[in-house]
Design goal:
Acyl-CoA dehydrogenase/oxidase N-terminal domain-containing protein, about 300 residues, 5-stranded mixed β-sheet, Acyl-CoA_dehydrogenase, flavin adenine dinucleotide binding, AcylCoA_DH/oxidase_NM_dom_sf, Butyryl-Coa Dehydrogenase, subunit A, domain 1, oxidoreductase
Length: about 300
């Protein structure tokens, strides 16, 4: 009230509260949609429309899931990855559930042979000379570094996957090229494929030679116009046919490969090819599609 004004004469002022509730008035319109909620809905609508357009564009640009990827997604079992994607990973559960351990023989190999190989390797010298020393090559062959996954009955070491992984990890700390050189025969090499699917003659011929390093393998999969997707090879084809004179069943192949690790020193190449049988010569004993041929 003003000075000198009678206190009883002061009229209460009218307060207007904006918001919801009885007796309250809404604020004046804001923008073309009339209120703040309308503005928010408008922004969200534009955002959703943009998201849909970007999604449709990306869906048209990205390739579909290939046959190889579908097979890979359907293989294996569910492990710790389930806990991760479920949002509740537990380190203690991982420790309690998965307890990989090396056998006494595998531990001894890691402590003795792998340690000695690391001692005679120099990452600088390998990078400069672009090759290992003769001593290192001979030691890897003599100690069956190239046959760790091949069973003992075929001259290999018969080590577990965990042991091979541990050995490769230690080699990588000293010389990455040694890691790759040992990794390829024990992963991409044809040894495990021969053990599982090879004929008796193929096993008898190839496995001992792969185990002692007489034959160093490489895997010819990647081509100039295709990556490492085994079911999407471009320019690597083979056709089932019969020899015109002997009638022997075989394949005629044409291929171009590149980026093949160990190719300069390999004695046998596993070729990834797209097999076709237009004349039905397989007689139902095989299928068209991806296959591997060994070329010595």
């Amino acid at each position: 009230r003003k000075d000198g004004e009678n206190e009883d004469a002061v009229q209460p002022r009218r307060h207007i509260a904006y918001g919801r509730g009885e007796g309250r008035r809404r604020p004046p319109p804001r923008g073309p949609r009339g209120d703040r909620g309308g503005q928010a809905r408008g922004i969200l609508g534009v955002s959703h429309a943009i998201d849909k357009r970007v999604y449709r564009w990306a869906k048209g640009v990205l390739p579909p899931i290939s046959k190889t990827e579908n097979i890979a997604l359907g293989c294996g079992t569910i492990g710790f990855d389930r806990d991760i994607f479920g949002g509740s990973p537990s380190l203690q559960h991982l420790i309690d559930t998965y307890t990989p351990a090396l056998s006494d023989e595998e531990q001894s190999f890691l402590d003795v042979q792998v340690h000695h190989l690391c001692s005679i390797l120099s990452d600088h010298d390998v990078a400069t000379d672009k090759d290992f020393s003769r001593e290192a090559w001979d030691y890897m062959r003599d100690e069956r570094f190239f046959g760790m996954k091949i069973p003992r009955e075929w001259g290999g070491l018969g080590f577990s996957t965990h042991a091979v992984s541990t050995i490769l990890a230690k080699l990588a700390t000293q010389c990455f090229d040694a890691n790759a050189t040992v990794a390829v025969p024990n992963s991409l090499g044809p040894g495990e494929l021969l053990v599982r699917y090879g004929t008796p003659d193929q096993k008898e011929y190839f496995l001992p030679r792969l185990a002692d390093g007489t034959l160093i393998p490489c895997f010819g999969l990647t081509g100039p116009h295709s990556g490492s997707d085994a079911t999407s090879l471009i320019g690597s084809d083979c056709v089932v046919s019969r020899h015109p004179e002997t009638g022997e069943l075989g394949v005629v192949a044409s291929f171009r490969k590149r980026y093949i690790t160990l190719a300069p020193v390999a004695g046998v190449v596993g070729l990834g090819l797209n097999l076709r049988d237009p004349e039905g010569l397989l007689g139902g004993e095989g299928e068209e599609g991806f296959t591997v041929a060994l070329l010595e």
